[in-house]
Structure formats: structure tokens, C-alpha cells
Amino acid sequence: MEEKIPARSHKLLLNDRKRASFSGIKDVLSFDVGEILLETEAGMLMIKGTDLHVKRLTLEKGEVDVEGQVDSLVYSDMQKAEKKGTSFFERMFR
Prior knowledge:
The protein has 94 residues and is mainly beta.
């Protein structure tokens, strides 16, 4: 029998739109200086901005620290996309 791992809570701390700390991170799907895509306990999170850098990544603890100019944070629920038959990326990049 497979033991179920309890979900971690998802937290976001943003300081002056220049530094952000996240917990409850499942995976980092992609990142570059303009955009970071994270899979969180609360759904997919797209961070857009300029000069973005992942400063610390600890997937064992589910934590990520980001620096740079944060312009937007957008959440998307993957379960809703799967039910509708469209992929997450199709919805995000329309």
C-alpha cells in the first residue's frame, strides 16, 4: 500500500517587488530572466518580470527564493485545465 504524503502549505512573501520567497513548491518547470514557472500546492504559478533569478532552490523542503523586478504573479489551476481537455500551456500562452 502506498503511503500518501501530506500536502505542504503554500506561502508567498514579496518584498518591494524585488525579492520573493515561496514555500509549498512541487517543481520548477522553467525559468529565464523574464519568466519563472512553478508548480505549487495551490496550482501553477507564473512569475513575470525583468532580471529574474532563482537565488535558492530546495525542492526537498519545497522552497524557492527569487530576486529581480516582479511585474506579475498569475496562478492557474491545472485540474480545471485537465477537465476541460486543454493543456496548461495552451491556456497560459493564448
